[in-house]
Amino acid sequence: MLNLTQAQEEKEYIIKAIETDDEELNEFLFSLGCYSGEPITVIAHRKGGCTVAIKDGRYNIDSQLAEAIII
Fold first, then answer.
1. Which DSSP string corresponds to the chain?
2. Domains of the chain
3. Model-level pTM?
């Protein structure tokens, strides 16, 4: 299984799981529309994180968040 830090740019993936014990982080990702079964696309990898497209939005997320999103 891959996490977002290993994803190819501009390729759509389906989120399989969010691996975090941090409830606040889980709620934050859910509020962005980032949860199991949702499509996600890495627009670009950046130093310290990446830019992703979820639903109609684009977000910059840090490496810790990217590693928690399993695709």
1. --BGGGPPBT-EEE--EE--S-HHHHHHHHHHT-STT-EEEEEEEETTEEEEEETTEEEEEEHHHHHHEE-
2. 4-70 (2.30.30.90)
3. 0.90
Q: For 27-65, give one letter per residue: b (16+ CB within 10 A) or e.
A: eebeebebbeeeebbbeebeeebbebebeeeebebebeb
Dump pLDDT digits (tens) for 12-59.
Answer: 999 999 999 999 989 999 999 999 999 999 999 999 999 999 998 999
